[in-house]
Amino acid sequence: MTSIEKREATVMSTLLGPRVPAEPAALAARVSVRELAVRYAPDLPLVLDGVDLDLHAGEVVALLGSSGSGKSTLMRALTGFAPITSGEVTVGGVDVARLRRRQLRGLRAEVGQVFQQFNLIGRLPVLTNVLTGALHGAGPLNVLGTFRSADRVRAFELLERVGIAHKAKDEARSLSGGQQQRVAIARALMQNPRVILADEPVASLDPTMSAVVLDLLRSIARQEGIPVLVSLHVVPLALAHSDRIVGLRGGRVVVEGSATDLTETDLRAVYHGAATEEHG
Ligand SMILES: Nc1ncnc2c1ncn2[C@@H]1O[C@H](COP(=O)(O)OP(=O)(O)OP(=O)(O)O)[C@@H](O)[C@H]1O
């Protein structure tokens, strides 16, 4: 350790207090949710109630639940877009509820998001769409509206990674749904994300393309070590393309476990249970 490093270490330990043995990086959850409750307004009921969730490097976790069970709200809470009424949400060790607006922007820059409707800029070339992922960070756009060449190289590599580099110059709107979703994934990767949140990413795709996109997310999770949280409405897709399942019903986690161990009873708890409660 140099003398500067020693001085920094002393300052940090003064600021942070005695050193607590850290969890090994590979075991520490990238995302941790504890006893999360969300209420959108004081006069509205809880939308999430006592939710626990961990996301680890390299895993795909599928979020199941009927419409209105709180899947999107849980994802929004991870980026501070849903109010954290009580409980704790940490992303990369950062307590989301404590962040000020500017810090929240920083956090969002490190969270890759993939949506059902792709959210690309249709009239812009595919490569430019991927490059916009870099804008979340330091803003490498210069006054002429062009991007740094290093970013262009990286964006092209990411298009190769998702298998559509040959479409780099095409307008995004000219691509098929499956291709557009792969552009959206490349854009998310351009952010060098700590985690990827995919909210119903295959709801607009046919079964073949759904499998391609979910396979891609899984290979990214494994190869890049990025946890992926994906909400899905099609149970067989969740079973085939995720490592773990978290089932929400009425804002509570009612099922949590390995995708290979999910039983009919578990599924009933997630779906039929809700219907029984509502209509019974
Ligand atoms: N901004 C908001 N203000 C008030 N209530 C909201 C808001 N957003 C969502 N809700 C309510 O929270 C509940 C959960 O909604 P959410 O969108 O999280 O469910 P979901 O499981 O993602 O549903 P879907 O599968 O239909 O997308 C619903 O009752 C919804 O009406």
How does this model look, in words?
One of its GO terms (molecular function) is ATP binding. Keywords: ATP-binding, Cell membrane, Membrane, Nucleotide-binding, Translocase, Transport. InterPro entries: AAA+_ATPase, ABC_transporter-like_ATP-bd, ABC_transporter-like_CS, ABC_transpr_PhnC, MetN_ABC_transporter-like, P-loop_NTPase. The chain is α/β, with parallel strands linked by helices and 280 residues long. The chain has two domains: 25-110 and 199-280, Rossmann fold; 120-192, no CATH class. It is built from ten helices and ten strands. It has helices at 3-16, 71-78, 101-109, 126-131, 149-161, 177-190, 207-224, 235-241, 264-270, 272-279, and strands at 31-38, 48-55, 60-64, 86-91, 94-95, 111-115, 195-199, 228-231, 244-249, 252-258. It has a six-stranded mixed beta sheet, sandwiched between helices. Strand 7 (195-199), helix 7 and strand 8 form a beta-alpha-beta unit. Helix 5 (149-161) crosses helix 6 (177-190). It is globular, with a radius of gyration of 20 Å. The N and C termini lie far apart (67 Å).
Secondary structure: elements and pairs:
Elements: H1 3-16, E1 31-38, E2 48-55, E3 60-64, H2 71-78, E4 86-91, E5 94-95, H3 101-109, E6 111-115, H4 126-131, H5 149-161, H6 177-190, E7 195-199, H7 207-224, E8 228-231, H8 235-241, E9 244-249, E10 252-258, H9 264-270, H10 272-279
Parallel strand pairs: 3-8, 3-9, 6-7, 7-8
Antiparallel strand pairs: 1-2, 1-4, 4-5, 9-10
Helix pairs in contact: 5-6, 6-7
The protein binds adenosine-5'-triphosphate (ATP).
